[in-house]
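Lecture notes, continued. The same structure-token format from the folding unit now serves as the input rather than the output. Read the line below as a description of shape only.
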């Protein structure tokens, strides 16, 4: 079974407007409310690929009810820990004709008793399970919380996927995650360097492998992705043609597509293909993509061995 953990789920309030003017009243031309948070997005796309999974994490308040309800409506298995105080956050995603701006909320305080409940859920995982840790760690939890969770399941051979930024990602590498998915900007930031060529990316991708990551998937937005696979092969994928509606969740969809592709075929090339199709399908859609939208793009993905 695949378990996703979203420590700080959100309602993504996705709006369109022609222009965003700071210091003025701005009015939107379209608005949508979606259940969000990186782990939750991974769960939604896994579900589209027919891969059974369970979404874990903390929810609270009326916003938490919306998140849980909308996942249930889509047939996604959830086992969220409900906090008695506070509200799951609302993240505003503003798409204008030129930019995408995001304002992400803080989220509720998570008391120690509730953290213990999450550890009890992790106690049940075995070597047949995959644990996906995705998204930021809320301010009320310690920065090393992902490391703590990985340490907790370490002896049981659980496959762990981590999609997080900077130190959160670097610090988990000693626990040998099965997959990490930084984007090219995050790699540059992690190592404090400027990346201008594919060779640069490969150099730092290999550094992440040397530090412990088993598979490193580097996404590059509209420029596709590179996979440095555990078997030593390196692959590059293109992106299909399409109009970007809202790229929020594209990275999470790529992670989910990769996991689904690997579960189905045990082949890294196929996993990258399904990951790339899933990422682009979400970029071309207002919400995270549907199975039909993803399948329509799979044939356009060209995976090349470097
Ligand atoms: N503009 C785009 N056109 C086509 N495909 C895209 C575009 N942006 C993203 N994708 C697809 O989604 C994948 C992941 O995108 P990206 O590199 O933006 O991830 P990310 O930075 O983690 O995204 P996010 O944080 O917005 O979820 C890309 O490798 C590509 O396959
Ligand atoms: O604040 P975090 O946890 O870093 O990111 C949260 C978030 O921006 O990530 C998802 C897209 O990747 C959205 O659904 C959600 O709003």
């Amino acid at each position: 079974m695949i378990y996703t953990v979203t420590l700080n789920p959100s309602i993504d309030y996705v709006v369109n407007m022609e222009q965003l003017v700071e210091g003025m009243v701005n009015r939107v031309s379209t608005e949508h409310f979606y259940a969000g948070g990186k782990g939750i997005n991974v769960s939604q796309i896994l579900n589209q690929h027919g891969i059974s999974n369970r979404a874990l994490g903390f929810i609270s308040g009326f916003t938490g009810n919306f998140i849980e309800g909308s996942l249930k409506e889509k047939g996604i298995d959830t086992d969220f820990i409900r906090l008695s105080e506070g509200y799951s956050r609302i993240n505003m995603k503003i798409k204008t004709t030129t930019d995408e701006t995001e304002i992400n909320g803080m989220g509720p305080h998570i008391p120690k008793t509730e953290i213990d409940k999450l550890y009890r859920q992790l106690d049940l995982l075995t070597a047949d399970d995959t644990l996906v840790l995705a998204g930021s760690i809320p301010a009320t939890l310690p920065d090393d919380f992902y490391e703590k969770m990985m340490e907790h399941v370490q002896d049981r051979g659980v496959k762990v996927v981590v999609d997080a930024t900077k130190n959160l990602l670097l610090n988990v590498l000693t626990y040998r995650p099965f997959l990490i998915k930084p984007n090219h900007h995050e790699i540059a930031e992690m190592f404090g360097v400027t990346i201008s060529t594919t060779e640069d990316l490969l150099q730092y991708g290999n550094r992440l492998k040397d530090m412990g990551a088993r598979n490193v998937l580097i996404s590059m937005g509209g420029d596709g992705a590179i996979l440095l696979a555990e078997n030593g092969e390196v692959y590059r994928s293109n992106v299909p043609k399409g109009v970007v509606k809202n790229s929020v969740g594209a990275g999470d969809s790529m992670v989910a597509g990769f996991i689904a592709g690997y579960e189905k075929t045990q082949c890294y090339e196929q996993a990258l293909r399904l990951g790339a199709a899933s990422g682009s399908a979400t970029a071309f859609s207002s919400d995270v993509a549907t199975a039909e939208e993803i399948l329509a793009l799979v044939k356009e993905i060209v995976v090349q061995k470097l």
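Point for the exam: DSSP finds ten helices and 15 strands in the chain.
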